[in-house]
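can u do me a favor
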């Protein structure tokens, strides 16, 4: 079997990474139907997004270090098998509690598998080359959140919502078979035996105690958390607050992905002219500016045609943030890239789940206090995430200046 080209590798790893956005975004249009069938408010179904994010973080925490020791491909197979089995079990869900538990287990499997995507790229590339390949993967992978809500809307229209999870089970099995057939093992036994592997705790401690690396991790984690707030609140924002139809919702949601794909393409070009860190800073500033715009718009009771572009640019700015922050982190850890990738994933998905719950709490608190729901809780939490990410990068990731001689 010949080794895949860089473009083929990007497509294969994008298909693996796309497991998560498919699992998160495909059932968004079905939330109203699911809430009705499970006899709960839509708010409780939305909590399953945070449940998934917690489970996905845990899966990466397990899968990253194990892939450093056992190889990338065995962990991909294990994770996707677990993801597929729980997806099939989700088709039989009859209560909200079953939904939440099975979504967590599904996410653990997804996390164990997909954590290997960035680790495999770090095995093969370094520096700006790694950032470029990560951007190439992101460009292909972004088709998942673009088409997932549309597929979900079609499923709800012609079938029942359980078919969404059946589709996820089939997709994950097909991806597993394709990757086992075409992907090379980038962390073979011979390579692993050459290095004296530190203990699990030592590996995590090394990443967590690295100040500059944590600056990049804080940046990407809070930037992603802002996006997760939008995802968690999108059903309310568009379908309830603005009364958008189920058929139109996927197009409004997909518009964010189109901007992110464009930004990823711009990032690949910009890396030939500017440093990765300067592009990352630009992306964080763009995200913060859009967050402030959303805060102002929420109090001005702006219409849909202003909120949608601000959300598009806020989410789209991740195209300038994700690859550069990931590459900036992994450059420090060539020998434990799986563990470092796990720290990134655990941090961003755990924070994403927590800020999603924070939005939910503030959303309910606002209704108790004012007897109405507005967009201001979403806007404030998204803005806070962007601000913390920018501050974290500037404070932690700065390089020490050599002392000037007297």
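np, heres the sequence
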């Amino acid at each position: 079997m010949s080794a895949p080209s860089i473009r083929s590798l990007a497509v294969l790893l994008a298909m693996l990474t796309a497991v998560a956005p498919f699992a998160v975004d495909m059932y968004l249009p079905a939330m109203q139907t699911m809430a009705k069938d499970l006899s709960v408010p839509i708010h409780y179904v939305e909590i399953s997004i945070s449940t998934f994010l917690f489970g996905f973080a845990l899966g990466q925490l397990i899968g990253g270090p194990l892939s450093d020791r056992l190889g990338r491909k065995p962990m991909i197979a294990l994770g996707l098998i677990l993801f597929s089995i729980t997806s099939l079990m989700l088709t039989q869900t009859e209560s909200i509690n079953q939904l939440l538990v099975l979504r967590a287990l599904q996410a653990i499997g997804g996390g164990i598998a997909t954590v290997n995507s960035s680790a495999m790229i770090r095995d093969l590339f370094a520096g700006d080359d790694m950032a470029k390949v990560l951007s190439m993967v992101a460009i292909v992978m972004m088709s998942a959140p673009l088409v997932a809500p549309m597929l979900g809307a079609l499923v709800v229209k012609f079938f029942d919502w359980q078919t969404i999870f059946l589709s996820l089970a089939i997709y994950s099995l097909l991806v597993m078979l394709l990757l086992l057939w075409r992907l090379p093992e980038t962390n073979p036994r011979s390579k692993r035996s050459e290095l004296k592997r530190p203990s699990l705790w030592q590996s995590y401690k090394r990443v967590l105690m690295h100040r500059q690396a944590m600056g990049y991790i804080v940046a990407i984690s809070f930037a992603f958390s802002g996006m997760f707030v939008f995802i968690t609140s999108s059903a309310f924002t568009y379908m309830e607050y603005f009364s958008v139809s189920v058929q139109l919702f996927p197009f409004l949601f997909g518009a964010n992905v189109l901007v992110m794909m464009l930004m990823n393409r711009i990032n690949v070009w910009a890396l030939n002219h500017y440093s990765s860190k300067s592009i990352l800073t630009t992306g964080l500033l763009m995200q913060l500016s859009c967050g402030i715009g959303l805060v102002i718009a929420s109090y001005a009771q702006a219409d849909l045609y202003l909120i949608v572009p601000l959300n598009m640019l806020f989410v789209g700015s991740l195209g300038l943030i994700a690859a550069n922050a990931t590459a900036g982190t992994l450059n420090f850890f060539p020998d434990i890239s799986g563990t470092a990738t796990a720290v990134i994933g655990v941090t961003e998905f755990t924070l994403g789940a927590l800020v999603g719950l924070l939005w939910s709490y503030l959303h309910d608190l606002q209704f108790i206090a004012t007897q109405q729901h507005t967009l201001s809780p979403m806007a404030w939490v998204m803005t806070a995430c962007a601000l913390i990410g920018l501050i974290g990068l500037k404070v932690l990731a700065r390089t020490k200046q050599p002392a000037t001689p007297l």
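The CA atoms of residues 266 and 320 lie 8 Å apart. hope that helps!!
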